[in-house]
Amino acid sequence: MEYNQLCDSDLRVSEICLGTMTYGYQNTKEEAHQLLDYAVSQGVNFIDTSETYPFPNPTKTQGMTEEYIGNWLINQPRDKLIIATKIAGVSPQLTWIRNGKNRIDKANVTEAIEGSLKRLKTDYIDLYQIHWPDRYVPLFGQPDYDPQWERETIPIAEQLEVFATLIKAGKIRYLGVSNETAWGVCEFCHIAKQLNLPKIVSIQNGFSLLNRLFHVNLAEACRLNHVGLLAYNPLAFGFLTGKYLTDIPQKSRLDLFKEIYSHYDQKSIMEATKLYVNLAHENGMTPAQLALAYVRNRWFVTSTIVGATKIEQLQENLESVNIELDEIILANIDQIHRAYPNPAA
C-alpha cells in the first residue's frame, strides 16, 4: 500500500480509501467492524463516511454509519487514522436532516459537525467535506446545467468563514468538497486566497472506466489549484465487476435499489462493461481489479474510494494495488472508451 500527500495538507493518505455507505443498512455493526479491521490490517489508513450514510438514508438509519465507525474508532490509535466525513448540502428530500433546511451556513454546519463528532466518538475530523454544493448544480444523473434552476445560496466566503472557525477550534483539520464543478473548485480556491481563509485540499467526485468526465476540465482546475481527487464509484455501482451482465444478484445494490440505479440499465453500459470484463480476463485479472487499477494510476487521483459489503469483495479490491497496467492494456482501454465514451456519466 502506498501513501500519497493530500495536496496542500500534511495528510498522507493510503492510495485506497475505505468507503462505508452500506454500514447500517446492508452491513451490521459486527460486519462493519470486520471490514474496518481488515482494511486497516492491509495498510488502509483513510476512512470516508458522511452524516447522511447509510445510503439510501431513511429516517431510522441516518447517522448509523458514523455510529458504527465511532464504536470501532474508540479502540483504535486515533492519530494513525485519517477520518473523513461530510455535511449534507441543500436537499428538500432529506427532511430528517435538520428538518430539510440544510444550508452550508453557521447554524447548520455547527449542528452537523457536533453531531458527527458525537457519533464518531472523536474530538476532531481530519477531512470535512461539503457533500454537494449549497448552490444549484446538476447532480446524480440530472441533465445539463440549466440557469432556471439557480437558487439563493450561501456565499462561498461565508461558508469558508464558518469552516475557518471550526479549524481554529480544532474540530476539523482540513476542508474538502464533493460533487463539485470546475467553476466551484476555482471559486473556492480563489476566495480562500483572496480573504486568507482555509483552502480546500480535496474533491470527491465520481470517476471510473464508464465515467471519465473528470478528465475534461476538472483535472486542469484541480491541478492548477492543488486539489486532490478522491475518486468515488470506481466500480460504477458494481457494474464494472461484471456481476450484472447475466443477472441481478439478490441483495446487490441494483436488486435492493432498482429505482435509484435505473439510469444504469442502458445498452451502452452493458456493452462497454462486457469489453472491459473481457480485457481483464485476457490479462489475468478480475474485472474489479482492472477497473480499480485504472483509476488508482491516474495522475490526478490521490486516493480511490472502495466500498464492500463482504470481506471477499474487500480482499479482491485491495489486491488491485499490486496491479500495474501496461501501455498495451491502456491503449485497449482507450479504444473501448472511444467506442463508448462515458456511458455512466
TrEMBL record:
Keywords assigned: Oxidoreductase
Domain NADP-dependent oxidoreductase: 15-336
CDD domains given in the database record: AKR_Tas-like
SUPFAM superfamilies linked: NAD(P)-linked oxidoreductase
Pfam families from the UniProt entry: Aldo_ket_red (PF00248)
Superkingdom, taxonomy of origin: Bacteria
Name the record gives this protein: Aldo/keto reductase
Source species of the chain: Planktothricoides raciborskii FACHB-1370
